[in-house]
Each structure stands twice: as C-alpha cells, then as structure tokens.
Amino acid sequence: MTRWSTLLLDEASLAEMPDLPVDQVLRHADLVTAGRPKPQALYERWEKQQWSARAIGLERDREAFEKEISPAARQALTDQIATFITGEYTGLDLLGPILTGAPEEVDHLYLGTQIADETRHTQLMLRFGEELLGLDPDPKRMLVQAWNMVTPSHRELSTIEADVVQELQQHPSDYRRWLRAVTLFHLITEGVLALVGQRAILNQLHGTKALPGVKAGFTAMCRDESRHVSFGLHALRQGVKEGYGDDIREMLELSAPIALGIDHGDRPEEHTGDPTMTDLSVHSLRRQIHLIGLEREFADHLVTISFREPAADEAAGAADAAARA
Q: The domain containing residue 129 runs over which residues?
C-alpha cells in the first residue's frame, strides 16, 4: 500500500492484513457494494486481489490457540470455523449451476472467478480444521465432523440451498430459478451469514496478536466476499427491474427467518450494549434489500416474521383458516 485510503483493504497484502484497522475491514464490503460495481469491474478487482491459502502461516496460531486463547473464546472460534468449513465447501459444490445458468456473458465470466475464490476459501478452512481444531485431515471425514458441529438452522438452510440449486440445474436456462438461487446464495448465505460471520470473528480477534494467520485469512475472505455480494446485488437489481421482484421476495420470505434466527433467538430490540450477531444480520439484510430496489416495508415484514413468537404464528394461521372458511 502506498497511501491511506478508506479502502485500505483493496491493496493490502496478506502480510499487512492482520494489522489493518479493524473498522476499515468491517466497513469494506459496505463501501464496495455502495458503488454498485458491475460484473466486469468485479472481474478486474479479482485479478488485482489474488492471495494464496497455502501462504498463510499457522504455526504461531496453533500454539496460541491452545495456550493464549480462553476456553470460551476457543470454543466460540471452533464453532465458527466449523460453520465456515461446511459453508465454503457447500459454496464450491453448489455454485456450478449458477455459473451455467448465468444470463449474460459478463455474468458467466465473473462467476468463474467466484468458483476460484470458493476453492481457495475451502482450502483455507480445511487447513484451519486440521491445523487448529485438530479435525480429521481427510476432507470427506472432516466435512462430516464439521457438519455435526453446526446448528440445526445452518443445516436447514444448507438443505434448502441444495434443493434450490438442484432445481436450477434441471432447468439451466430458467432466469426466474436463477434469480431465486442467487437470492439465497449471494444475498442470504454470503451477504447475511458469511459476511457477518467473518466480521464477527475479526471483531472478536481485534486487539490480540495471538492469531495472525486466522486474522489474515478471514480478512482476505472478507475482501473476496465484497465482490461476491456485489455481484449478487447487481444481478438481483436487474431482476427487480425486469419484473421478477415477487420471485426474489418469495425466496427471501423462505430463507431470511432461518438466517436471522441462527445463533441468537432473542428479539433485536431486547439487546443492549454492543450489536449482536442478530443485530448485524438484520442491518445487513435491510441494507441489501434497499440496494436491490425492494421497498423498506418488505424489509420490515421480513424482520417481523423472523422474530414473531410461535403463538403469533399459530394465531395468524387460525385467522387465515377462519377467513378461508
């Protein structure tokens, strides 16, 4: 880097990433997506922002993980990494049909870069699993171990994602199905879960020099994620303009309550002090809905149904049944 910038992360090397100001890293994706970059610009950013998952040294991290990190923090980080092990591999596994179904050549070219990113992220998470968590070094067995560690909500959302992408695979030229897959894959899985999860890990590690490899890896992934989410928002903006808003809304109504319910079951308004994962997820969801051109009232609706008490759901169902009768 030759000068200070609000986008310090754009030009940072892996060696510089652990020491970047955390507030700049956490804001990076918001700054990138606010510019509404198109696929060609995202491709050009990808060419300039390469990094190696194998170049990240973990020797210091391995020792510090056992000796310098508190048991509670170690358990939290273990759970988070297990989620990323399954999430990054799932992303690699399911992105192919989205690439194949891309409506325009520029979309196809950009999505090829994202597959490369998902491969790199998966390689890094497998290293974290083996070298930090002590999981089985065989990827197939490690994925089973990590799957058994994630929450039921993560598993449910992964299952829905697999179903949506499989449906697209069977109808590769169906633009409506493609938009539904992008909504779930890019806006929810990456824009709400992955991006917020990466930010939470980096914020948790802020102020400690104990895990430089983990910090470098998740910082690099945050930079990649800014491109992935930007592409999804671009594609969904186009979909809304072309009259497919209802399909996008339908997928958000299915998936957003699951995503917002992961990790925290409390209502956002009941939280005090620093923002929780749920607070950050709600903020990210609202922001992205705005950026794709859907109305604020719909975002309010999603948050309402995500945190409605089960009794309210039962009452609403009874009222609907009575109305139909």
A: 21-311
pLDDT in tens, the chain (325 residues): 444 445 679 989 999 999 998 888 989 999 999 999 999 999 999 999 999 999 999 999 999 999 999 999 999 999 999 999 999 999 999 999 999 999 999 999 999 999 999 999 999 999 999 999 999 999 999 999 999 999 999 999 999 999 999 999 999 999 999 999 999 999 999 999 999 999 999 998 988 889 999 999 999 999 999 999 999 999 999 999 999 999 999 999 999 999 998 864 333 344 445 678 899 999 999 999 999 999 999 999 999 999 975 544 444 444 444 444 4
Tell whether 12 is covered by a domain.
no
When divided into structural domains, the chain yields a total of 1
CA 103 to chain centre: 23
Q: 283 in a domain, yes or no?
A: yes
Question: How many C-alpha atoms does 146 have within 13 Å on its Cβ side?
Answer: 32
Q: Tell me if 321 is assigned to some domain.
A: no
- Residues found in the chain: 325
- Provide the CATH number for the domain around residue 243: 1.10.620.20
The CA–CA distances, whole Å, from 152 to 23, 149, 159 equal 31, 9, 11
Query: 325 lies in a domain?
Result: no
